[in-house]
Specification:
By secondary structure, this protein is α/β, with parallel strands linked by helices. It is built from 15 helices and 17 strands.
Length: about 375
């Protein structure tokens, strides 16, 4: 089985912190885009991509700018070209400022069975600073509408370590989120990504981010509050109720094949040791390639055994499950200790070995970027 990712590169307004490829939405462009995705699907199948797919993810950008009719059209094409497995997880990212009871019901009827709602925070001042389209009440309303539409698998985004954020404000966010009782949460510390307006404000001194101590305290506060409420911290930034892990994202961390279509999308092909492909982040280039029958993607990297092994470790240690020596033996013919004796020794204080299963604890994830370096 494999996954299918569809990048929807349209936003009504670019959030100040976002570095994903997106352009200001214009109705003719948005309405014409599904046809490009459908052409891309057909092209990919001709080039050898096969199904069925057991996860589909509409990401962006703002996928909730697509009409439910467009989502229906795209999913029908995916089923015709690749096949959609029974019980497939089909996710759509939605901005609370772009949905209504009617549109959410339409997405549910179209076949979307998992909704990722970009709430980010319930603090109105922070929502304004981040450039979001919604306020606290509109965000809460969007969640209620989604429940009313029949969504029983909802993920909420929570952003922390915001400018001038206090512990009390973060606790207020956590209380509000827990009252909603979503099945899944994605919790991200705010970072100043290059070439964003947010980074410009950080560089100029107009805004400052909390220090590392606040970040660490906030990370562990979220972990403790959500664990106490029954959520499993199954990946650095992700929490789930039992049975509601994001299967699509698990595919990324397990290096499963994923066909990614749309301008700015990145695919992983699992033939031999694997390869990564990119669709250039340019709508005109994407459109011209598909209209003239040319390959819309370009190869970024072809893995050999060594680089595939290193990436496997890098991705697996992001997850609480980690990786087993048995899995490494099957894939690469070695154990972690055999492949990286010096890295294992350097990380011994934080790296857990439970009967051949290697993993990091949530507290050691705070040092992930440092701890993973010896394995790269």
């Amino acid at each position: 089985m494999s996954g299918l990712y569809l990048h929807i590169p349209f936003c009504r307004r670019k959030c100040s912190y976002c570095d994903f490829f997106s352009v200001k939405s214009e109705t003719p462009q948005v309405e014409a885009y599904p046809d490009l995705l459908i052409r891309h699907l057909a092209w990919a199948v001709k080039q050898g991509w096969t199904g069925p797919v057991d996860t589909i993810y509409f990401g962006g950008g703002t996928p909730s700018l697509l009409s439910p009719q467009s989502v229906t059209q795209i999913l029908r094409a995916a089923d015709q070209n690749l096949g959609i497995a029974n019980g497939a997880e089909i996710s759509l990212e939605a901005n609370p400022g772009t949905v209504s009871p009617h549109s959410l019901q339409g997405y549910r009827n179209a076949g979307i069975n998992r909704l990722s709602l970009g709430l980010q925070t319930c603090n109105n001042n922070q929502l304004t600073l981040l450039g979001r389209l919604h306020d606290r009440q509109e965000g809460l309303n969007a969640f209620t509408w989604a429940r009313d539409a029949g969504f029983d698998n909802i993920s909420l985004d929570l952003m922390f370590a915001l400018p001038r954020q206090t512990t009390a404000e973060l606790e207020d966010d956590l209380r509000a989120y827990l009252e909603l009782d979503p099945e899944h949460l994605s919790c991200y510390g705010l970072t100043a990504e290059p070439q964003t307006s947010f980074q410009e404000k950080i560089v100029s001194g107009e805004l400052t981010l909390p220090d590392e101590e606040f970040y660490a305290d906030a990370f562990m506060l979220i972990h403790e509050k959500l664990a106490a409420a029954g959520y499993e911290h199954y990946e650095i930034a992700n929490y789930t109720r039992d049975g509601y892990t994001c299967r699509h994202n698990l595919g990324y961390w397990q290096r499963r094949a994923c066909l990614s279509i749309g301008a700015g999308a990145h695919s992983f092909h699992d033939v031999q040791w694997g390869s990564r492909w990119e669709v250039p982040a340019d709508l005109d280039t994407y459109r011209q390639a598909l209209q003239t029958g040319r390959e819309p993607s370009q190869c970024l990297e072809i893995f050999d055994r060594e680089s595939a092994l290193r990436e496997t470790i890098y991705l697996a240690l992001r997850t609480r499950r980690g990786i087993t020596d048995a899995e490494l033996q099957q894939q690469f013919g070695c154990t972690l200790q055999q492949a990286f004796p010096e890295a294992v020794a350097a990380s011994a204080q934080w790296l857990v070995n439970d009967n051949g299963r290697w993993s990091l604890t949530p507290s050691s994830w705070l040092l992930y970027d440092h701890l993973i370096l010896p394995f790269l």
